[in-house]
Amino acid sequence: MRHNKNFNHLGRKTAHRRAMLSNMACSLIEHKRITTTVAKAKALRSVVEPLVTRSKEDTTHSRRVAFSVLGSKYAVTELFRAVGPKVATRQGGYTRIIRTGNRLGDNAEMCMMELVDFNEVYGMEPKKKRSRRSRRGAGSTEAAADAPVTAEVVEETPAAEATEETPAAEAGASEEENKD
Question: Confidence band (pLDDT; 50, 70, 90) for 1?
Fold first, then answer.
């Protein structure tokens, strides 16, 4: 019977489960995002959320409680320096579980778990620079812009000289005819 079975044991003994969740919590705090199974993510949520709530007030007691769960000085420091101040105004719900499909080996349901305020997927995405490409093909935009101008100047110069010489030559020829 399933009387009073309040949480998922994840197929592990108590010490193994506690150590695994502690390691996963440290990884989540340090990297802000981890990939795991949905069952482990739901179990991890019950470990991480109270720690993040404690990190809002930086006291010695809060740090000691966090260290007793995490067991990593670096993770505790990161929790109280980076995560705590960033979520100070949030009432709860510090983690997000995004399902990513099933694992190929055993068809386990996988997900990506992340800290909500540190997301990069759903947050403000940087605007992409728009670059214009010339129709002429290869080369940078400056080279493409310089090439046609040079070609036009070269083409126009002989035509302008020829145009100028022709009236002058005709004028000179007409002057010679007038003299005769």
Answer: confident
Decide: pTM greater than 0.85.
no
Residue 124 to residues 31, 96, 121, 148, Cα–Cα distance (Å): 19, 16, 8, 41
Residue for token pair 């340090």: 30
Q: Which of 5, 20, 21, 84 is nearest to 51 (CA)?
A: 84
Q: Outline where DSSP puts E strands in the chain.
A: 33-37, 95-102, 109-115
CATH 3.20.110.10 fits 14-118, yes or no: no
Of residues 98, 118, 102, the one with CA closest to residue 110: 102
Contact 28, 40 (CB under 8 A): no
Q: What is the mean pLDDT of the chain?
A: 81
77 versus 139: which is more confidently predicted?
Answer: 77
